[in-house]
Every structure is written in structure tokens, then in C-alpha cells.
Amino acid sequence: xxxxxxxxxxxxxxxxxxxxxxxxxxxxxxxxxxxxxxxxxxxxxxxxxxxxxxxxxxxxxxxxxxxxxxxxxxxxxxxxxxxxxxxxxxxxxxxxxxxxxxxxxxxxxxxxxxxxxxxxxxxxxxxxxxxxxxxxxxxxxxxxxxxxxxxxxxxxxxxxxxxxxxxxxxxxxxxxxxxxxxxxxxxxxxxxxxxxxxxxxxxxxxxxxxxxxxxxxxxxxxxxxxxxxxxxxxxxxxxxxxxxxxxxxxxxxxxxxxxxxxxxxxxxxxxxxxxxxxxxxxxxxxxxxxxxxxxxxxxxxxxxxxxxxxxxxxxxxxxxxxxxxxxxxxxxxxxxxxxxxxxxxxxxxxxx
Amino acid sequence: xxxxxxxxxxxxxxxxxxxxxxxxxxxxxxxxxxxxxxxxxxxxxxxxxxxxxxxxxxxxxxxxxxxxxxxxxxxxxxxxxxxxxxxxxxxxxxxxxxxxxxxxxxxxxxxxxxxxxxxxxxxxxxxxxxxxxxxxxxxxxxxxxxxxxxxxxxxxxxxxxxxxxxxxxxxxxxxxxxxxxxxxxxxxxxxxxxxxxxxxxxxxxxxxxxxxxxxxxxxxxxxxxxxxxxxxxxxxxxxxxxxxxxxxxxxxxxxxxxxxxxxxxxxxxxxxxxxxxxxxxxxxxxxxxxxxxxxxxxxxxxxxxxxxxxxxxxxxxxxxxxxxxxxxxxxxxxxxxxxxxxxxxxxxxxxx
Lengths: 352, 352
Known about the structure:
2 copies of one chain form a homodimer.
Chain A (H helix, E strand, L loop, with lengths): L1 H4 L4 E3 L9 H9 L4 E4 L5 H14 L4 E6 L9 H17 L13 H10 L4 E5 L5 H10 L2 E6 L2 H10 L3 E5 L5 E2 L17 H9 L6 E4 L5 H9 L4 E4 L13 H8 L4 E4 L7 E4 L2 H6 L9 H15 L22 H23 L2
Parallel strand pairs in A: 1-9, 2-3, 3-4, 4-5, 5-6, 6-8, 8-9
Antiparallel strand pairs in A: 7-11, 10-11
């Protein structure tokens, strides 16, 4: 197991859409953690290039996260209706909206690439791959990790043969890794990470990686004490110089500011810092991923270019204000020391 | 500090409305934790009686939780409109709806009682008392704990002179302890417990008690590792024989079943197991506490009497299915042993 070989129980969360870079992944692995690449939104060729570049910068293990595709839409009407409500935004920004389209993010090409030239860990988000996909990757020499947000999804992933479960609590920034993006499932905002750790541990003995709202060594210590083998951190790395985070996004991460979940930017539920776009369009946004992602892409690009935080999807976990501006390796080392101290302090206080 | 004198870092959550009993509070204190009484919905005389009965059963410390009153409503119209949508429910149950009214839960009388005959700990929920109230209780010999759900509320409570902050994560069952019940604040379901621990610790050095979704020793170990001085558990005690939990509520707690937050039962946001009443009436329910509490009280009583889970407010934290049917003292002892083992295991694994 890769998790047993890490000198530091810290896994980089895959941050698709810009923040993840080969340099960032390599830096985390070089510091003793597990660096991750994000296949989402990349072509298979671009992914192959990122893998080659990251591998050239580290001898440590690397992981790659792949989006499991959904189903083509039954009707284009909800997206067209949403697009109509965004025309004024596009006019103000001086751009045209993107053409909404369904695609599978080059699913087969990415699987083929990773079967031929596997990384030590392949993780999946947005669903549980078929058992055949999991078995093929394992046969090629890769561990298979599956992201889950509910105890039921955890049981499904375990039954399909996953080696490790990545538990994503409701605190997490970015897209929810839910198998189904069903508004009725999210009445309570989803399971908090600590709840999920307890509930899933009662149903499986698989190794667990804990993700969502972890920005400090104390947070890492907490999930290890709850039985996780490692913590997965994403937002905490957004201010490192190795990350490709847009400046407008970095500024928002560093400040305090409430987060909320929305489908306004991509048609799939995701947590970000509340801004004007989210507040004004959340109620109108349909469940339609990746169609809405493509629809709003030019708006978000215009917001990043103009440093306008109100047009950008400011993905962030609940503790984003605790993110530190440090080189990634220094951050890994600092977090590990904090976590170790927190665990030792709690263990000795409670052994009194 | 009371927290430093506990042999077990477990605090009973106050479970107003039936589950909390003097026997339950005394049993937790006798096992080395901190038992809590719940002043909510009781008259000051009934509270005095419960305090006397609990104190007669334990030499250990006890706490009492008091609801901070809100403001009288500006208009009765939203409650009247909601009442109209519930008439069919009342007819089916063969009862009349309750008369909605505002009251302050005998705030002054309870404060007077607790100033004359203080318990070691007085905690508050639904708001931050004025500094004068806090100072008076401290002068009478009681520690003052304030329940908070956001970093901003934590800062306000610290500035008002609270001795301890009780952090309630979004995983918690029952009412949210928010200072303001504002639908706009809850877009993301509120802060998860682990996020709240990290964010509040960055803003204050006050001792923290962690509440919300903790049902196992691993969960307790996690919050201690994150820096909490103790864990507060409520749902975990609902199946103990000392608790006054209604049978229909007990049955729901013991089964798996999704929870969600709703104002349908009381006019204030609270987490419970999803049932027909919640699903059908959530969207119609106004922010109006305690008016809606009184409005639905006969319906809920009828549901309890008829063992009808679809009419009852099945308050429950996210991990309710992990609650164990054990005498309260045995549960405290078991949880403490589990927590100690979890902390020691994590500390030694990570010291390798």
C-alpha cells in the first residue's frame, strides 16, 4: 500500500482547472506526501504530458484523479433557459457565453493511457467505475481509490473492489464527489467529515483518506485519530507558489469570507466563496454537468483576466482563510510537525 | 475549570423536550463526565425540581443549558399562513393545532434561580447573553459556556466574557445553536465541526467543547486531537435507559436513515431524521420560534402517542445509527476507553 510507504500522512487533493500543476504534485511527493495530478478538463495528451513532467521532478509516488462521466442529458431545455438568464452577464463582461455541450472528459482515452503507463494511484471522482475498470488498473499496477460522500457510496465502492476510500466531507471546496448530483440528497448539505469517518468505518475496514476543510496540523491529527490513514488537502495548497491558482482566486482564499455550495458555475454542486454570481444565479442553475461548465467558461475566464472576484468560481473549503503562503514542501513539513505535536499532546493529556 | 477536573472528556449535550432527565445527567457525572440538564421548555419551578433531583443522585459537577430568548415577531401572518397548510394534518391526527405564541421561556426567572443556586456550569444556546448576565453568573460561582456555530459568534462570545465555547458543528442533531436563525446564513448547511475547531482556535485561546455527530470513541479522539478539551454528545445517549426518549424516536435513532435540517417542526432550524412531515412542510415553514413549536406541539404529541414516526420531530445527529443501547455510565466508560485507544494508536503510528 502506498499509504504505508508515505513518511508524511498528507495527500494533495487534485485541483482540476488550473491550480494543480506538475510542480505542485512533485513538490508534495518530494516532501514525503503523495502528490496528485488532476485529469479533469485535460485532453488525454495533455494529461500524459503533465504526468511526464511531474515524474521527471520526483522519485516519489504520484496519483492521478479521473472524473467518472455522467449520462448525456435527456433535454437541452434547462441549460438553454439558464443561458438566457446569463445573457446580461455576458454583455456586461463583453464576451459571448460558451456553447453548452455534454462530453465524457475523454474517459476511454484516459483509461487507456493509465492502463499502459500507470501511476501508483488512480483515484476517481463523480462516481464508482465498473469493477472491470478497477480490476484492469490494479492489474496494470495501480492502486484504485474512489471518492465517496456517503456511507452508501462507500459500500458500493468497497464492493466494486476499491483499494482505498477517499471520504469527502461537506466542508470540502470544489465539486462534491457525489456519485449522483441529486438536489434531494443535499438537504442537509451532506455529511460532515467527522460523521463520514465514523459511519464508513462502521461499514468497512478499507483504508480511508479524509478530505474536506483540513488546513492545519490539528485538522490532520483529528482525522488520523478518527482512524484515517492520511488527510487529503486541497485549499490549503492554493497559495503555494507551485500552484496555478489565479491571482483573483488567491486573494479570496487568503481573506475571510463565507462559502456555500452552488451549481451556478458548472451545473454540478460545488463549494466556493460566496460572491455576486453565486448569489444571483444559484436558484436558476440546473443540474447539468458539464454543459453549464462550458456555458460559463468564457465568463469565468473574463473574471480571472479582469481580477473580478464576482465572476469567478472561487472554489474553497470552509477553512480557506487558514491557508498559508509557503512553498509546498515547507507547507507539508510544517503541517506534519503540527499534526505530530497535536496528536502527542492529546495522547499525553488524555493518558494523565 | 470544570473541564480540567473531569476524569473523562465527555459532556452530555442538553436534550430539551424530554430526552434529558435528572437520572441521565447524574449518571454521566457519576461516570466521570459532565452531566447536563436542559432548561428549555421547562418552567423555572420545574427546572429547580430537576436540578434538585439530579444533585441528589451525584456528587459530581452538573451543568444546565438555557435558551437565550429571541425577539417578539413583527407580524403573526407567516405563522397563520403556515398553520393553514397544517390543518389537514391536524384533521387526520384528530387533534387541533396548538395556539402559536411568543414567549421567552421564563428567561428572567431561570436566571434568578441560577444566580441564587448556581450549578458549576451554565451554558447558553440561541444567542450570547449580555456581559452583565455572564458576569453575574460567574460572580455566583458558575462557569459560563456559550454555544456557537460560526467563528464570528465565537469572537462575540469570547468578547462578552464566556469561560468556554461549545462549538456546534453542522453534523449536530436538534436545533442549531446559531445566534440568528437567518436562512441566508445556512446556504452551505453551516460549518462542519472539524472546520469550526480549526477556525475558532485561530481566533481565541478559550477552552473549546466540540459537539455534533460524535457517536464513537474515535470521534471523541478526533476532536481532542484537534484541540478540544472535551466532546459533547447528545444523540449518542438517546438509547440509554436513563434518557426520556420517546419509543418512536428511539426506533428511528437505532436504524439507518438520512437526516436533514428543517424549520417545519419549530420555526427554528434543526436537524432530524427525514420523515414525511419534514419533506412535505419544510418549504412552507417560516422563521418563527417558538411560535411554530407551540403550533405543532399537539401534532407531535399525537405522533409520539401513536408511534407514528412521520409526525414526530426525530432530532438526530448525522451518526445516529451508531448510538448504542447501554446504561449511560457504561456508555461513558466504553466511549472513554475507545477514545483513549484511538488516540494512543494514532500517536504511536505517527511516531514511527
